Amino acid sequence: MELQKRLTQFIDATRVKTALIDIMAYAGDAGFYELIPKAIVQPVNHHEVKDLFAFSQQNNIPLTFRAGGTSLSGQSITDGILVDIGKHWYKVIPATNGHSVTVQPGVTGSMVNTYLKPFGRKIGPDPSSISAAMMGGILSNNASGMCCGVVNNSYHTLQTVHFILPNGNDYNTAQEHSYKLFEEQESVLCNVLQAIVGSLKNNSALTEKIRHKYKTKNTVGYSLNALLDYEHPLDIMAHLLIGAEGTLGFIAEATLLTLPNHPCNATAMLYFNNIQDACNAIIPLTNIGAAVLELMDRASLKSVEHLKGLPSFYPNLPNTAAALLCEFQGENIENLQQQLHTAQTVINALPLLHEAAFTQNAKEREFYWKIRKGMFPSVGAVRAAGTTVILEDIAFPVEKLAAAVLDLQNLFTAFNYNNAIIFGHAKDGNIHFVITQHLDTQVEIDRYDAFMQAVINLVLNKYQGALKAEHGTGRNMAPFVEAEWGGEAYEMMQQIKATIDPKNLLNPGVIINADAKAHIKNLKQLPQVEAEVDKCIECGMCEHHCPSKHVTLTPRQRIQVRRQLKKLEQAGNKTAYNQLTKEYQYSGLDTCATDGLCQSECPVEINTGELVKRLRKEQHSSLQKNIALSLAKQYAFAEKTARVAIATGDTLNHIFGQKTMPAITKTLKKIIPNFPLWMPELSAAKKLVTNPTKDEAVVYFSACINRIMGSPTKDKKSIQSTFVNVCNKAGITVTIPNNIFGHCCGQPFSSKGFNEAANYMAQKTIDAMLVWSNNGAIPVVCDFTSCTYTFVHNVSHLPKEYQEKFAQLQLIDIVSFCKAYLLPKLTITHPKENVVLHPTCAVQKMHLQEDFSAIATACSKEITIPKNAGCCGMAGDRGFLFPELTHSATLLEVAELQCSPNIGCYSTGHTCEMALTNASGRQYESILYLIDEVTS
């Protein structure tokens, strides 16, 4: 508490986190080390960062900066103050027609590429974690990836950088005056750097060693090539920061040169009888312009044999087999065809097991990449509970790669790593190997230590390779930096670190570490908890999708805290266990939107939303379950009651002022915590007029939320009237069943963990739909995509009888209906100039984005989908209970709308539309209204 009090003297208290749940949630990153921080601080500008540096120096408390936390080598953990710059540092500014881009450290690499896409450009680094890895880490680890090699990595594409040193001084290489200022204010550092440069000029052997080592991928230690590549101390310092893993300073902003993003690609899997044949093909394929060559050994190929769509010969590949994922890239189709034509002679001469079938088909290419990218998660998914997935990253001279891989496989056998796999970036001699390891006994730790010592000997002494090619030195290779570079070079690195950070307070223990056993200390323990938790490899790929990431916890952190609870329980620490359990209720359970988008990026396909629903279920008493079931059985009455309540509230607001209901519900929530808050966008639905007919073409199932809540624009037609109207225009006859009231997909219950009530409701509605649709002969259209998804997703939880009944139905979502049924029969007479779209979670999970965009494209001259569009956090009713969730979830998406004309905003979910309307001040409504407005 004392630390928090002192920090809040210069950082807003909402951005200083010292609660038990916060420090536990930030204790680990994607690596296999763990340290519990004293506090987590989220600065918003460089002035606050300078204040943090001063505080650190004055109080001798270490600082560590973290962006995405996808680091695999323990670079972003600390037992001091963890500075979370994954919040608030989002700026992306393309310049010079996209040939350069200025970024802040808290934006993901994929988001930067999204901004560059209209220019046909991309950043050079292309790590496989680019959708989650943030620019702070990409720069600080000198990230590269599958295509960029050693030419287009972070170091070589850096143009300018604004950074802050531990002494609080900041410099910007884009500003001419910074050069003179650096000389004046950092005279000691300038002298040290110039002295090292001078010594290198007189040491041809070491100079040649540095040049040689950077001809291949190498991220071990500091970027000593900066001492040879640049003359002015400021330029040297700027490039030393690249790959310094946050140990020398803070990168506040950087400008990178970009590369062409070639739109035409052809990809093939090349299968060989053995590793030697595959590796012999690398140089010839590189010489003819292959942009990508990804090597996979037989063990890695076996790890993805469960994937559907593999060729029939795949399971029968020889035990010695290997493969190369080969891709050619062109700026146009003619250029690509020329490359393929030139390559054919070389490819025909390769000893392939099966013919090379290059494809330009997007889905086929995506599947090839799915094979390659699925290897790491496949091992993670099937590993024994309680084991850690360790992904290591080494490089060998390409001409020695085959022999090195065989030697590494022999080490796997010698140390009993029987499920280890090897894959990697063959063009660069850069391979990754994956092992699974228990770290909970000394015997297992000793086995890992002995294995790593053998790997280090193999890489350095036998093959003169690099211990780290692209993942950074981190804690696991810090003890071996001197072994790789030698005493002279290591002494230079020590001198640089000591001069810049004399108190060793900036990310200590990373890169420069005198402890020979640092790589086997502070190891992360993964106790067995439950199926979803045990499966998690804590990579952080899920986090950028999470609507609660800026307000409480991310999916990864929800799982990490579950593990921390188990460790406290095992240790018998009841006080801390009870405290953490109490804090987890709000941060872990209450504010989870359970939208499930986390699963879309999770390498092992964990749906943390489903975990939260199950945990909510376990909290329910028998009485609560019975009440929920009774409510489901009387849902028509509940639906009517809710509609009357909203109408009453609307009337009270009209009579006494618009602040009346917000004040009343806020007071009631203090008494009843689960009481929903009033939103200004709330209004009661207009009376639904049913029209059962005998010659219907479609059955219209209007979701209960649309039957209860109406448009906040009082003179608007109801969504039901709008649906009927557009169908009439298209010549489609619609029936709205008389007994539609009281039927629901079950989501209001399933989202809260009341599974029995949810299943009862789903079964009741399926039975009704079968009657309405003449046993499935007539399509049933649902006007709320989230409800459609709930039916489709939750049917697997129903008895087999109801799974078979549901299979009889032709349930069509409103998006698919508009695209396939309405648009072909309608004439767009007056399209809008511009519309803004919000693709809901359900639209994304049902892969309806293309149809959704196609509808808007047909109805307007231009469409805008915000780059930060994601889950709005409403989660049905969650936004009524915790408005801070929706506010946080929509913040970046809404910020983008400032540049969009206010023509019309559309989505496919009423509560989502309410949340976006509330957050943006713009009226969001169903895509049906757009179709109705532009047709006659």
* Integer count of domains: 5
Radius of gyration over C-alpha positions, nearest whole angstrom: 30 Å
Beta-strand residue percentage: 5-15%
Terminal-residue CA separation: 65 Å
Helix content: 40-55%
Secondary structure tally: strands? 24
Shape: globular
Largest sheet: 6 strands, antiparallel
Low-confidence stretches: none
The average pLDDT is 94
Number of helices in the DSSP assignment: 43
> Class by helix and strand content?
alpha/beta
Would you mind describing this structure in some detail?
The protein has five domains: 97-260, Uridine Diphospho-n-acetylenolpyruvylglucosamine Reductase, domain 3 (2-Layer Sandwich), CATH 3.30.465.10; 264-376, Alpha-Beta Plaits, CATH 3.30.70; 382-520, 2-Layer Sandwich (Alpha-Beta Plaits); 633-819, no CATH class; 828-934. The longest helix has 22 residues, at 635-656. The strands form five sheets. Strands 5, 6, 7, 8, 9 and 10 form a six-stranded antiparallel β-sheet that branches. The protein contains 43 helices and 24 strands. The chain is globular. It has 936 residues and is an alpha/beta fold. 45% of the residues lie in helices and 12% in strands.
Keywords:
Alpha-Beta Plaits, 6-stranded antiparallel sheet, Uridine Diphospho-n-acetylenolpyruvylglucosamine Reductase, domain 3, 12% strand, globular, 45% helix, 5 domains, 24 strands, 936 residues, alpha/beta, 43 helices
